[in-house]
Specification:
Blueprint (H helix, E strand, L loop, with lengths): L1 E7 L4 H5 L12 H14 L6 E4 L3 H14 L3 E3 L16 H8 L13 H18 L4 E6 L1 H11 L14 E6 L3 E8 L5
Parallel strand pairs: 1-4, 2-3, 2-4
Antiparallel strand pairs: 1-5, 5-6
Helix pairs in contact: 2-3, 5-6
Protein name: Histidine phosphatase family protein
Organism: Paenibacillus contaminans
Keywords: Hydrolase
Length: 189
């Protein structure tokens, strides 16, 4: 059995402004750092053995804060990056409508498709579950990658809630993936 804790990175200024981040390397803001510290404190109650992160700074800094508290070295993997959002990166909804019209979502704007995102997430999860059997592994990534990967891993669980910044979702693999905790951010209360 392997236990995986999927963590969405702390908040950024672009999250607050509702700007599409995608592969843009946007750092955490001070609130995001405080959220990461709160999660790190919460995670000290479990003996996590490994921590992996997207190489984008908002996820990596979240992971570094957690890893430092837990005495773990963060390893990065590009497969854990957020979806590539092409031409819409850096824009708000209003800006997209002004630039491309209200049907902008139907245009070919270089946005990575869901299957490609799921393939990246599943590839990483498969590698971890095969190589780290019996271990407890934290993975710090991004909302779209985690959300879409969860739909594939645990289709029997309602995963429609928008993932909160620094929320944790805990899965365990027995005969199939089971969800022990979903999108929990009680450490922020």
């Amino acid at each position: 059995m392997v236990i995986i804790g999927l963590v969405r990175h702390g908040i950024t200024d672009w999250n607050i402004e509702k700007r599409v981040q995608g592969h843009s390397d946007i750092p955490l803001n001070d609130t995001g750092r405080k959220q990461s510290c709160a999660l790190a404190k919460r995670l000290m109650n479990v003996k996590w053995e490994y921590i992996y992160s997207s190489d984008l700074s908002r996820a990596k800094e979240t992971a570094d804060i957690i890893g430092q508290s837990l005495g773990l070295t963060v390893k990065t993997d590009e497969r854990l990056r957020e979806m590539h959002c092409g031409e819409i990166e850096g824009t708000t909804l209003d800006e997209r409508i002004i630039k491309w019209g209200s049907t902008w979502e139907k245009l070919e704007l270089g946005i990575e498709n869901d299957e490609a995102i799921i393939d990246r997430g599943m590839s990483f999860i498969s590698d971890i579950s095969n190589s780290l059997t019996g271990k407890k592994v934290l993975i710090v990534s991004h909302g779209a990658l985690i959300g879409l990967t969860l739909k594939r891993l645990i289709p029997h669980v309602n995963t429609e809630d928008h993932l909160k910044n620094t929320s944790i979702t805990v899965l365990s693999l027995k005969s199939k993936w089971e969800c022990e905790i979903y999108n929990c951010a009680r450490h922020l209360q």
